[in-house]
Amino acid sequence: MFKHEIPNTPIHKNPPMLIEVSGSHREMGQQIGEAARPQIQHSIANARVLIDAAYDTLELTWDGAKIQARKYLPFAEERYPQYVDELRGIAEGANISLDDIMVLNAMEAVTGDALHLTRCTSMAVNEQRTADGHVLAAHNEDWIPEDEDDVLVISAKPDKEPPFLAMTYGGLLPNVGFNAYGIAQLIDSVYPSDSRIGIPRLVVARAVLASRRISGAIGRTLVQHRAAGYNHLLVHESGEIYSVEVSARKFEILYAHDGYMVHTNHYLDPQMKQVEKDPEELLSSRVRYFRASRLIRQNEQHSIKSLQSIQKDHVNVPNSICNHNIAGADPLDREKTISALVIDLTSREMHITWGNPCQNVYHTFHLNA
Q1: In sequence order, what E strands does the chain have?
Q2: Is residue 170, in this structure, part of any structural domain at all?
Q3: Range of the domain at 172
Q4: Which of 23, 188, 353, 369 has a CA-to-CA distance to 63 between 20 and 30 Å?
């Protein structure tokens, strides 16, 4: 482990903000928007600064970003009007425009993945690999440090969909979490070369949380007219673990034959590697993947604590599993771990840090289905 204190590592004394919502999708969005108005407005301000700072790379203004994001709206509206309703509700509750919230939720598409700011690490182990027979999933969420203040936990009871518990930040649709049918989803950004205008990735990922069967969860990641794709690490309470690597037009399903799975931000399947954009820019993703894989293999009997220990790992710091923002880095290359979480699907709990897990404590939230 890295022994020296790392600068720019905020300490949070409190758990992240919990927002409990229920009702129609519009109502749930409004409840999120009202409860997290400062965080949502802050995350939009951060996004504006980010796009301004990247002008030389993107040649994009905020007004231009809103025009680009608007192109994705009809595709989302046609396939998933209920989640566009959630976005409308968030905008209404937070006193901002739908255009602004659409830029946040289509940021990767609008910027053409040029920023490469997302460096997440996801892992899962099933009952064969845990000391107590529980099924566990773990995720480090890496993003710009400014949005760390905006981390939220959403406990939702939609009128017509399964209850779920998820982590998000600012005005993003919730997607990293699990539902009452024992399905968990962790997402990692990947960088396909076949991106197109279509359903934004975050809307696709939001839909997965409404799945009642694992086949349905996989199917939702592959919806037609998707703009691009994530890696969706999908875990079922039965111990089934899949990674669905997705681009706009292709996909591959990886299965955890040995009871564990690790994924970061590059494609693993040979067919998917053919549509990977700029793979040489994803070296730190490979380092994290191999490091996490080695650490997870070293232990035959995992626990919540052992996965948390992997989440705190500092090999290859600052671009380590526990990712740090070191002063002086390129303004477009300064992401950090803003939250880390371990889901115990068997117990229906989420153990989550606000900020880097090496310096912040885990707080426990339960799914009250």
Answers
A1: 17-23, 121-125, 136-143, 151-158, 164-169, 176-179, 183-189, 230-236, 241-246, 251-255, 260-263, 336-344, 349-354, 362-366
A2: yes
A3: 113-366
A4: 188
With beta carbons less than 8 A apart as the criterion, state whether 159 and 244 touch.
no
Residue found under tokens 């309470």: 237
pTM over 0.70: yes
Residues 200/165, Cβ–Cβ less than 8 Å: no
Specify burial of residue 311 (Cβ count, 10 A radius: 0-12, 13-18, 19+).
buried
3 state DSSP class of 33 = helix
Q: According to the model, what pLDDT value does residue 58 have? A: 87
Sign of CA dihedral 31, 175, 317, 260: positive
Which residue's structure tokens are 């529980």?
Answer: 134
Specify whether the CB–CB gap between 253 and 261 falls below 8 A.
no
Q: Which residue is associated with the tokens 């064969």?
A: 128
Instruction: List Cα–Cα distances, 279 to 121, 193, 272, 276, 366, in angstroms.
Output: 17, 10, 11, 6, 39
- Residues 165 and 108: their CA atoms lie apart, in Å, by 24
Work out how many domains the chain is built from and give that number: 1
Which helix (H) or strand (E) covers residue 52, if one does?
Answer: helix 37-53
Q: What is the CATH number of the domain that holds 218?
A: 3.60.60.10
DSSP class of residue 192 equals: B
> Which residues have C-beta within 8 Å of that of residue 3, sequence separation ≥ 6?
none
Q: Is residue 61 part of a domain?
A: no
Q: Collapse the DSSP code of 204 into the 3-class scheme (helix H, G, I; strand E, B; otherwise coil) and give the result.
A: helix
Beta bridge partners of 153: 18, 167
Please identify every stretch of the chain with a pLDDT value under 50, giving residue numbers as ranges.
Answer: 1-3
Q: Tell me: the pLDDT tens digits for 246-265?
A: 999 999 999 999 999 999 99
E-strand stretches of 237-290: 241-246, 251-255, 260-263
Reply yes or no: is the peptide bond before residue 318 cis, omega within 30 of 0. yes
Domain presence at residue 57? no
* Type and span of the H or E element at 32: helix 25-35
